[in-house]
Amino acid sequence: MKRSPQPTILVLLFVAALLLAPLFLPAFYVTLLNYIGLYAIVALGLVLLTGVGGLTSFGQAAFVGLGAYTSAYLTTVHGLSPWLTLPAGLLVTGLVALSLGMVTLRLSGHFLPLGTIAWGIALYYLFGNLAALGGHTGISGIPPLQFFDIELRSGREFFYLIWAVLLVIILATRNLLDSREGRAIRALKGGTLMAEAMGVNTPRSKIVIFTVAALYASIS
User: Fold this and answer.
1) According to the model, what pLDDT value does residue 122 have?
2) Of 14, 29, 199, 209, which has fewest CB within 10 angstroms of its CB?
3) Is the pTM of this model over 0.90?
Protein backbone atom coordinates (compact mmCIF):
# COMPACT_ATOMS: atom_id res chain seq x y z
CA MET A 1 0.00 0.00 0.00
CA LYS A 2 1.36 3.38 -1.03
CA ARG A 3 1.84 6.06 1.57
CA SER A 4 0.03 9.32 1.12
CA PRO A 5 2.40 12.16 0.16
CA GLN A 6 0.31 14.62 2.19
CA PRO A 7 2.34 14.42 5.47
CA THR A 8 5.59 15.02 3.57
CA ILE A 9 4.10 18.00 1.76
CA LEU A 10 2.84 19.48 5.03
CA VAL A 11 6.28 19.09 6.62
CA LEU A 12 7.96 20.78 3.66
CA LEU A 13 5.47 23.64 3.78
CA PHE A 14 6.06 24.02 7.51
CA VAL A 15 9.86 24.14 7.03
CA ALA A 16 9.46 26.66 4.19
CA ALA A 17 7.27 28.84 6.43
CA LEU A 18 9.93 28.71 9.16
CA LEU A 19 12.65 29.77 6.72
CA LEU A 20 10.61 32.74 5.52
CA ALA A 21 9.07 33.83 8.83
CA PRO A 22 11.96 36.02 10.13
CA LEU A 23 12.15 37.83 6.80
CA PHE A 24 8.56 39.08 6.91
CA LEU A 25 7.44 39.11 10.54
CA PRO A 26 8.04 42.03 12.95
CA ALA A 27 10.68 41.53 15.65
CA PHE A 28 8.02 41.00 18.34
CA TYR A 29 6.55 37.95 16.58
CA VAL A 30 10.00 36.54 15.81
CA THR A 31 10.85 36.74 19.53
CA LEU A 32 7.52 35.12 20.34
CA LEU A 33 8.28 32.24 17.95
CA ASN A 34 11.68 31.86 19.61
CA TYR A 35 10.02 31.40 23.00
CA ILE A 36 7.56 28.94 21.47
CA GLY A 37 10.47 26.91 20.07
CA LEU A 38 12.32 26.88 23.40
CA TYR A 39 9.22 25.88 25.37
CA ALA A 40 8.41 23.22 22.77
CA ILE A 41 11.76 21.54 23.46
CA VAL A 42 10.90 21.31 27.16
CA ALA A 43 7.37 20.17 26.30
CA LEU A 44 8.72 17.32 24.17
CA GLY A 45 10.49 15.99 27.24
CA LEU A 46 7.23 16.14 29.19
CA VAL A 47 5.42 14.40 26.32
CA LEU A 48 7.91 11.55 26.60
CA LEU A 49 7.86 11.46 30.39
CA THR A 50 4.15 11.94 31.09
CA GLY A 51 2.29 11.41 27.82
CA VAL A 52 4.19 8.29 26.74
CA GLY A 53 5.74 6.91 29.92
CA GLY A 54 2.95 7.82 32.33
CA LEU A 55 5.34 9.43 34.84
CA THR A 56 4.72 12.82 36.43
CA SER A 57 7.43 15.40 37.07
CA PHE A 58 7.14 19.01 38.17
CA GLY A 59 10.89 19.55 38.21
CA GLN A 60 11.67 20.18 34.55
CA ALA A 61 12.22 23.90 35.16
CA ALA A 62 15.09 22.97 37.49
CA PHE A 63 16.84 21.15 34.65
CA VAL A 64 16.40 24.19 32.41
CA GLY A 65 18.12 26.27 35.07
CA LEU A 66 20.83 23.68 35.67
CA GLY A 67 21.86 23.65 32.02
CA ALA A 68 21.68 27.44 31.76
CA TYR A 69 23.67 28.13 34.94
CA THR A 70 26.36 25.58 34.07
CA SER A 71 26.88 27.08 30.62
CA ALA A 72 26.77 30.69 31.86
CA TYR A 73 29.14 30.04 34.78
CA LEU A 74 31.80 28.30 32.68
CA THR A 75 31.56 30.99 30.00
CA THR A 76 31.79 34.05 32.26
CA VAL A 77 34.14 32.77 34.99
CA HIS A 78 36.46 30.44 33.07
CA GLY A 79 36.22 32.15 29.68
CA LEU A 80 35.25 29.03 27.75
CA SER A 81 33.46 29.22 24.42
CA PRO A 82 29.65 28.98 24.77
CA TRP A 83 29.71 26.12 22.26
CA LEU A 84 31.96 24.14 24.62
CA THR A 85 29.89 24.91 27.69
CA LEU A 86 26.67 23.63 26.10
CA PRO A 87 27.86 19.97 26.19
CA ALA A 88 29.15 20.60 29.71
CA GLY A 89 25.67 21.75 30.73
CA LEU A 90 24.19 18.59 29.23
CA LEU A 91 26.72 16.44 31.07
CA VAL A 92 26.00 18.06 34.44
CA THR A 93 22.24 17.88 33.87
CA GLY A 94 22.45 14.25 32.82
CA LEU A 95 24.43 13.27 35.92
CA VAL A 96 22.08 15.17 38.26
CA ALA A 97 18.99 13.72 36.54
CA LEU A 98 20.45 10.22 36.77
CA SER A 99 21.17 10.64 40.48
CA LEU A 100 17.78 12.18 41.30
CA GLY A 101 15.95 9.68 39.11
CA MET A 102 17.50 6.70 40.88
CA VAL A 103 16.02 8.01 44.14
CA THR A 104 12.81 9.74 43.06
CA LEU A 105 11.56 7.13 40.60
CA ARG A 106 11.34 4.57 43.39
CA LEU A 107 8.28 6.53 44.55
CA SER A 108 4.82 5.95 43.13
CA GLY A 109 1.36 7.49 43.22
CA HIS A 110 1.20 11.02 44.59
CA PHE A 111 4.65 10.70 46.17
CA LEU A 112 6.45 10.85 42.78
CA PRO A 113 5.18 14.33 41.73
CA LEU A 114 5.62 15.56 45.31
CA GLY A 115 9.21 14.34 45.26
CA THR A 116 9.93 16.17 42.00
CA ILE A 117 8.38 19.34 43.40
CA ALA A 118 10.64 19.06 46.47
CA TRP A 119 13.96 18.86 44.64
CA GLY A 120 12.76 21.37 42.03
CA ILE A 121 12.19 23.95 44.77
CA ALA A 122 15.46 22.95 46.47
CA LEU A 123 17.47 23.62 43.30
CA TYR A 124 15.67 26.95 42.82
CA TYR A 125 16.71 28.18 46.26
CA LEU A 126 20.20 26.74 45.82
CA PHE A 127 20.75 28.72 42.61
CA GLY A 128 19.28 31.86 44.19
CA ASN A 129 21.51 31.79 47.26
CA LEU A 130 24.88 30.99 45.71
CA ALA A 131 26.94 34.17 45.38
CA ALA A 132 29.05 32.54 42.65
CA LEU A 133 25.93 32.31 40.49
CA GLY A 134 24.88 35.91 41.09
CA GLY A 135 22.18 35.15 43.64
CA HIS A 136 18.61 35.87 42.57
CA THR A 137 19.78 38.38 39.95
CA GLY A 138 21.54 35.66 37.97
CA ILE A 139 24.72 35.81 35.88
CA SER A 140 25.37 38.80 33.66
CA GLY A 141 27.93 39.53 30.96
CA ILE A 142 27.35 36.32 29.02
CA PRO A 143 28.99 36.62 25.57
CA PRO A 144 26.84 35.93 22.51
CA LEU A 145 26.99 32.69 20.58
CA GLN A 146 29.15 32.96 17.49
CA PHE A 147 28.60 30.87 14.38
CA PHE A 148 31.74 31.22 12.22
CA ASP A 149 32.02 35.03 11.92
CA ILE A 150 28.35 35.72 12.72
CA GLU A 151 27.39 36.70 16.27
CA LEU A 152 23.92 35.57 17.27
CA ARG A 153 22.60 38.63 19.08
CA SER A 154 19.12 39.40 17.75
CA GLY A 155 15.99 37.29 17.81
CA ARG A 156 16.10 36.87 14.04
CA GLU A 157 19.58 35.34 14.25
CA PHE A 158 18.61 32.98 17.05
CA PHE A 159 15.41 31.94 15.29
CA TYR A 160 17.02 29.51 12.86
CA LEU A 161 19.21 27.92 15.54
CA ILE A 162 16.31 27.34 17.93
CA TRP A 163 13.99 25.85 15.33
CA ALA A 164 16.73 23.74 13.75
CA VAL A 165 17.47 22.22 17.17
CA LEU A 166 13.75 21.66 17.77
CA LEU A 167 13.31 19.83 14.45
CA VAL A 168 16.34 17.62 15.20
CA ILE A 169 14.91 16.77 18.64
CA ILE A 170 11.52 15.94 17.08
CA LEU A 171 13.22 13.50 14.70
CA ALA A 172 15.30 12.03 17.53
CA THR A 173 12.16 11.57 19.65
CA ARG A 174 10.36 9.85 16.79
CA ASN A 175 13.29 7.48 16.26
CA LEU A 176 13.48 6.76 19.99
CA LEU A 177 9.79 5.84 20.18
CA ASP A 178 10.14 3.55 17.16
CA SER A 179 13.09 1.72 18.72
CA ARG A 180 13.14 -1.23 21.10
CA GLU A 181 13.74 1.11 24.03
CA GLY A 182 10.82 3.24 22.86
CA ARG A 183 8.45 0.27 22.92
CA ALA A 184 9.58 -0.48 26.46
CA ILE A 185 8.89 3.14 27.43
CA ARG A 186 5.40 2.95 25.89
CA ALA A 187 4.67 -0.11 28.02
CA LEU A 188 5.26 1.87 31.23
CA LYS A 189 1.98 3.72 30.87
CA GLY A 190 0.05 0.45 31.25
CA GLY A 191 1.47 -0.05 34.73
CA THR A 192 4.62 -1.53 36.22
CA LEU A 193 3.21 -5.04 36.64
CA MET A 194 2.01 -5.30 33.05
CA ALA A 195 5.27 -3.88 31.68
CA GLU A 196 7.37 -6.30 33.73
CA ALA A 197 5.14 -9.18 32.63
CA MET A 198 6.09 -8.25 29.05
CA GLY A 199 9.78 -8.46 29.94
CA VAL A 200 10.44 -4.73 30.36
CA ASN A 201 13.14 -3.66 32.79
CA THR A 202 10.96 -0.93 34.30
CA PRO A 203 13.56 0.75 36.57
CA ARG A 204 15.93 1.11 33.62
CA SER A 205 13.25 2.41 31.26
CA LYS A 206 12.09 4.96 33.84
CA ILE A 207 15.64 6.22 34.34
CA VAL A 208 16.16 6.47 30.56
CA ILE A 209 13.00 8.47 29.91
CA PHE A 210 13.57 10.69 32.96
CA THR A 211 17.14 11.49 31.88
CA VAL A 212 16.17 12.14 28.26
CA ALA A 213 13.42 14.55 29.37
CA ALA A 214 15.95 16.36 31.61
CA LEU A 215 18.42 16.66 28.72
CA TYR A 216 15.73 18.17 26.51
CA ALA A 217 15.05 20.75 29.22
CA SER A 218 18.77 21.48 29.54
CA ILE A 219 19.10 22.01 25.77
CA SER A 220 16.26 24.52 25.93
Assistant:
1) 85
2) 199
3) no
